């Protein structure tokens, strides 16, 4: 019995290891915009709109579609299922692996937009947050389509801007690509809103937890 379990575990981990190549790379790309947002929207870069700030913001926006792009990697899970892996391997190993992978990507997206919202609040433009989020969702949906179906990447905006621009015009005038983008926009917007609430709740919980000892101490001192 033990040998069978160990054999299954080794086989399952080997199947999961086969996904690490694209998962590690796509996770790296997903985290880039979040790291940039920490500097341009919360760090020293947010204190003045210098040339470096504009370059950093442009790079953050260019790389941002890579974060929710991980959702489209569900096609690899479908491929894994078709490989004939056992139900237990798929349920206990592969599905949790994909959930963690996609959660990291989406959380990087949420964190980036929260940092941008923080910047807008500090700039006295809190009413710009929702319109900005919707615009970014739209651009992200476009970026995901260009990446998944036309195989462009973020650097093509710099190295092949003309080709990318022409492709965008062609895709936006075609009904089928436009429908795919609309569906992608809805999925991103819904997941973003849900994860945003969870993230903000966790932030509030963490802050209250850090303040709780001090509050209890103050209460104790005032009520001997």
* Cα radius of gyration in angstroms: 22 Å
Provide the β-strand percentage band.
Answer: under 5%
Strand count: 0
Query: What is the average of the pLDDT values?
Result: 85
Task: Provide structural commentary.
Residues 219-224 have low confidence and may be disordered. With 224 residues, the chain is mainly alpha-helical. The protein has helices at 2-17, 20-42, 51-63, 66-69, 74-82, 87-122, 129-148, 156-159, 161-172, 175-222. The protein has 10 helices and no strands. Helices cover 83% and strands 0% of the residues. The longest helix has 48 residues, at 175-222.
Spell out the blueprint of helices and strands.
Layout: H1 2-17, H2 20-42, H3 51-63, H4 66-69, H5 74-82, H6 87-122, H7 129-148, H8 156-159, H9 161-172, H10 175-222
Helix pairs in contact: 1-6, 2-3, 2-6, 5-6, 6-10, 7-10
Question: Any key phrases for this structure?
Answer:
single chain, 224 residues, mainly alpha, 10 helices, disordered C terminus
Compact description:
The protein has 224 residues and is mostly helical. It has ten helices and no strands. It has helices spanning 2-17, 20-42, 51-63, 66-69, 74-82, 87-122, 129-148, 156-159, 161-172, 175-222.
């Amino acid at each position: 019995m033990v040998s069978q379990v160990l054999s299954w575990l080794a086989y399952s981990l080997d199947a999961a290891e086969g996904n690490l190549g694209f998962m590690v790379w796509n996770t790296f790309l997903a985290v880039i915009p979040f790291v940039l947002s920490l500097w341009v929207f919360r760090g020293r870069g947010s204190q003045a709109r210098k040339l470096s700030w504009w370059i950093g913001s442009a790079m953050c926006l260019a790389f941002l579609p890579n974060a929710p792009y991980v959702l489209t990697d569900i096609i690899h899970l479908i491929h894994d299922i078709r490989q004939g892996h056992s139900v237990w391997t798929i349920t206990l190993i592969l599905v949790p692996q994909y959930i963690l992978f996609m959660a990291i990507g989406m959380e990087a997206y949420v964190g980036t937009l929260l940092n941008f919202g923080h910047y807008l609040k500090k700039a006295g433009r809190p009413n710009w947050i929702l319109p900005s989020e919707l615009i970014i969702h739209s651009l992200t949906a476009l970026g995901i389509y260009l990446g998944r179906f036309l195989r462009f990447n973020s650097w093509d905006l710099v190295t092949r801007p003309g080709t990318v621009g022409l492709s965008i015009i062609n895709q936006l005038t075609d009904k089928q690509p436009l429908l795919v983008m609309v569906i992608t926009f809805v999925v991103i917007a819904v997941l973003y809103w849900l994860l945003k609430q969870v993230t903000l709740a966790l932030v509030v919980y963490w802050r209250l937890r850090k303040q709780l000892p001090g509050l209890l101490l103050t209460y104790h001192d005032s009520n001997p």
